[in-house]
Amino acid sequence: MSSAAPAVAGVQAPPKIEKKPIKFSNLLLGAGLNMFEVTTLGQPLEVIKTTMAANRSDGFMGAMGRIWSRGGMLGFYQGLIPWAWIEASTKGAVLLFVASEAEYYARTFGAGNFVAGISGGMCGGLAQAYATMGFCTCMKTVEITKHKVAAAGKKPPGTMETFMAIYRAEGIRGINKGVNAVAVRQVTNWGSRFGLSRLAETGVRRVTGKEGGEKLGVVEKIIASALGGGLSAWNQPIEVIRVEMQSKTEDPNRPKKLTVAKTFKYIYQTNGIKGLYRGVSPRIGLGVWQTVCMVALGDYAKEAVEKLTGDQVTAKH
């Protein structure tokens, strides 16, 4: 007599959750996608957003004029080399690696697409902030805001000169100033982007009749990612706080030792609610572009790399 339990008719077994192996190619892919994102639209949108957040009396066109006056088109790429490239080449790899692992483990605990996506994004964002982004975002903001010196008729210091001056004066803490705000931003950023993108994918599947797990088309995937990226700009106050904490713009009314709470209070008292959302328009554009690159293109690129490496292994055998 067999001891195996009979299958229940009409009841489908839950799909087996497979853990994908950690591949060096995926880490390179994450770095490559982020380098592409920041070198195309990413850095110009970052510069506009940061300029508006640091100069909260400026509107969109005022910020554009301020940036153009710093060096024309090159002004929109201030801080790209080396800080944005260092950040992009490392944070993309960290994000894809940690987010994929966290999303897998969330699924093993029974989480659905939305919860698993949020979990993966939050863990990936947290790892990004403390592993590589703290000093990079600080130095990018310094690069963008230090031109107050040039406006006063003085020659602004070079990139490495600025870095070493901060390090000598304030040490590692100075280079990583605002890292806790960066961590909060990244956790909420990628938690929102991955989670909302997966949620949007579910909506797109319902509209297109692909609820059975059929593969989404490129346009459908991009729409879902764009929705997730744009909606993730809800946390703009954290971004404005981060910029203010890292800014080199002088203000005698600003508290000397800034914390997230003190910075929030200072911005609210000087600029009100609108000040906390200054720069949200380019931030939405940046969120859409980053999410399309890292979620939509990331999913397709991972599939292509896996297929290519799989075909190479098969050919060898």
Write up what this structure looks like.
- With 317 residues, this protein is mainly alpha-helical.
- The protein contains eleven helices and no strands.
- The protein has helices spanning 24-54, 60-69, 80-108, 113-145, 148-151, 159-175, 179-208, 218-231, 236-246, 260-276, 280-316.
- Helix 1 (24-54) crosses helix 3, helix 3 (80-108) packs antiparallel against helix 4 and helix 4 (113-145) crosses helix 6 (159-175).
- It is globular and about 60 Å long.
- The protein starts with 23 loop residues before the first helix and ends with a helix.
- The model is unreliable at 1-7 (pLDDT under 50).
State the total count of DSSP E strands: 0
Order of helices and strands: HHHHHHHHHHH
Oligomer: single chain
Class of secondary structure makeup:
mainly alpha
Number of helices: 11
What Rg, in angstroms, do the CA atoms define?
Answer: 22 Å
pLDDT under 50 segments (min length 5)? 1-7
* Beta-strand percent range: under 5%
Mean pLDDT: 78
Large-scale geometry: globular
- What percentage of residues falls in helices of 4 or more residues? over 70%
Distance between the termini: 43 Å
Task: Please summarize the sheet with the most strands.
Answer: none
Protein name: Mitochondrial carrier domain-containing protein
Membrane topology: Multi-pass membrane protein
Organism: Lineolata rhizophorae
Subcellular location: Membrane
Annotation keywords:
317 residues, mainly alpha, 11 helices, disordered N terminus, single chain, globular
Helix-strand blueprint:
Layout: H1 24-54, H2 60-69, H3 80-108, H4 113-145, H5 148-151, H6 159-175, H7 179-208, H8 218-231, H9 236-246, H10 260-276, H11 280-316
Helix pairs in contact: 1-2, 1-3, 1-11, 3-4, 4-6, 4-7, 7-8, 7-9, 8-11, 9-10
